[in-house]
Amino acid sequence: MPSPVPQEPGRPPRMHRSLGVKDGVAIAASSTAATTSLGIGMGSLAAYAGRQTPALLLLAFLPVFGIALSYARLNRTEPNCGSGYTWVGRSIGPWSGFLTGWVVLIGSVIFMAYTGAVTGSVVLQFLNKLGLHSLLGLRLDPSSTGISTAVGLIALVLVTVTAITGVRSATRLQMWLLIFEYAVLVVFCGYALYIGDQPFSLSWLNPFEIGSPQALAQGMVIAVFIYWGWDAAFSVNEETRNASDAARGGLIALVAMLGLFLIGAIAFQRVMSTGELIHNGPQALTFLGSSLAPEPWASLPLAALMCSAFASLQSSVIPTARGALAMARDRTLGPVWQRLHPRYGSPAVGTLVIMAMAALLAVLAVGIPKLNDMILTAVNSIGLTVALYYGLTALACAVRFRGSLRDGAVRAVRDVVVPAASALALFGLGGYLVWDYATMSDHFEASPDNGWFMLLLPALFLLLGLATAAWAKWVRRSPYFRTGRGTDADALTLPMDGDAGEPLPRPVES
Predict the structure, then answer these.
(1) Per the omega criterion (within 30 degrees of 0), is the bond before 301 cis?
(2) Between helices 34-49 and 53-77, what is the axis angle to 10°?
(3) Which residues, in sequence order, are CB contacts of 76 under 8 Å at separation 6+?
(4) How many CB atoms sit inside 10 A of residue 364's CB?
(5) Domain map (residue ranges) of the chain
(6) Contact by Cβ (8 Å): 167, 239
(7) Residue 317 scores a pLDDT above 90
(8) Who's near 13: CB < 8 A, 6+ residues apart?
(9) Which residues 6+ apart lie within 8 Å of 460 measured at CB?
(10) Number of C-alpha atoms within 13 angstroms, CB side, residue 277?
């Protein structure tokens, strides 16, 4: 437990600068959740890309890495726990900035409601493997939505406590979970590479052998979503000893995820045929373990999956609470999100509110089947919101540093060309996903596999975000919508560009 940091008399609590590069890596890697992505996502990718799944992961990395470089560039000039919300608001416009922060907040709450139940199911599977099938007369059935949700609620409480008592202690826990799960993942995947009976082919790394442009685009959307989460490192840039540590942590984690995904995808294909990968789906990692080792060793991948689910839950609430804190400082959200714990310097109240909303959604979904369908549909269509806020943030980088086009080829490519190209790639994928959803169904139905319903939910989230933004602008009279900056914007000048020493371009006025 971290020691209390003395606060100056008469001054409000503030966040503690106690994190380093390793902490940023832990947060970003936990949020990306490589073990969970490999464990439940390889079957979905194989359904579109076949044996070219490794090529798809490599291709999807390119725009995502361009987005990450944009985050790093913006972070170097203006470290802010609001990250995309702040940068987009100051570079493109406050309405776009608010929507960037809003979709992250709403998407994360829904994702945690869904992931809590999934975590509960994985825990129950692990307990069953250990021979524990009932407790106090209650059957521990992983397929029971009610029991899985109840166990998931316990997980939510645990990660809430660790997130509130200080991000430093939370990241240390995440680091130990990561060490265990990646050690298991590397050992099993390495062994699969060695003994697998499916012959390796260089065609596995050739994206041009994917069956059709439609399969390529649909697979790319899933692959980009699999990388989602590395930007969590930038949410703690006000709690790192050096703001650039957050950028280094995020970039290191992202490159490490690429390596793990490629090793994992090739290892899975060395052991399983395409049909077996698709058939096993979310149980692919468990199937891999049982194929390579006897019990109890075969249960280690399941234990790693359980650790990954816990770490993913915790690393989801940390950036979400800090994004809401940045919005509250600008009075675009209510003051409750801005309250810091007097001892730990964490946004404790906001963390509690986020977890309470996620828990309430999860509980209601047990008794309301249609709500459960809505949550599942929102998770399935979350790729749209990811493409939106990643693309807007990269575009913000290109707009903010457009003056670099006059400062030589290297700076022009780094500050403008790569961010703009990455934003266009993400917008293109998002646009394709909209078209695919709009044409996949010929009628409306409240079902997770109905395209019109999958489009309706993100549209409702955006409309609700616009309504909340209008309330903040005209009722709360937030200065953010007048200046694109914050509540104290009139007393501040824009930060200086670290490379050129010139004031940054002013934001677009609303």
Answers:
(1) no
(2) 130
(3) 243, 244, 247, 498
(4) 13
(5) 21-68+95-379
(6) yes
(7) no
(8) 7, 340, 341, 342, 345
(9) none
(10) 27
How far from 96 is each of 86, 402, 471, CA to CA, in Å?
10, 18, 15
Q: Between vectors from CA 509 to CA 506 and to CA 510, what angle results, nearest 5°?
A: 155
- Which has the closest alpha carbon to 118: 442, 379, 348, 343? 379
Coil, strand or helix: which one is 188? helix
Distance CA 86, CA 64 (A): 20
Write down the pTM of the prediction.
0.88
> Is residue 500 pLDDT above 70, yes or no?
no
φ and ψ of 394, to 5 deg: -65, -40
Q: Which CATH architecture has domain 21-68+95-379?
A: Up-down Bundle (1.20)
DSSP states of 239-283: SBSSHHHHHHHHHHHHHHHHHHHHHHHHHHHHHS-HHHHHHHGGG
Nearest to 38 by CA among 176, 186, 251: 186
Q: Which residues pair with 134 in a beta bridge?
A: 139
Cα distances (angstroms) measured from residue 263 to each of 53, 94, 260, 267? 11, 41, 5, 6
Residue range 267-297, pLDDT digits in tens: 999 999 999 998 887 788 888 898 899 888 9
The mean pLDDT of 247-255, rounded to a whole number, is 93
Q: Is 228 left (phi over 0), alpha (psi -120 to 50) or beta?
A: beta
How would you class 150 by CB atoms within 10 Å of its CB: exposed for 0-12, middle for 13-18, buried for 19 or more? Answer: middle
Query: CB–CB of 87/396 below 8 Å?
Result: yes
145-194: per-residue pLDDT in tens?
889 899 999 999 988 888 888 677 778 778 888 899 999 999 999 999 99
Nearest-angstrom CA–CA distance, 72 and 467: 31
138 forms beta bridges with 135
Do the beta carbons of residue 124 and residue 151 sit within 8 Å? yes
The number of beta carbons lying within 10 Å of the beta carbon of residue 201 is: 12
What's the residue count for the chain? Answer: 510
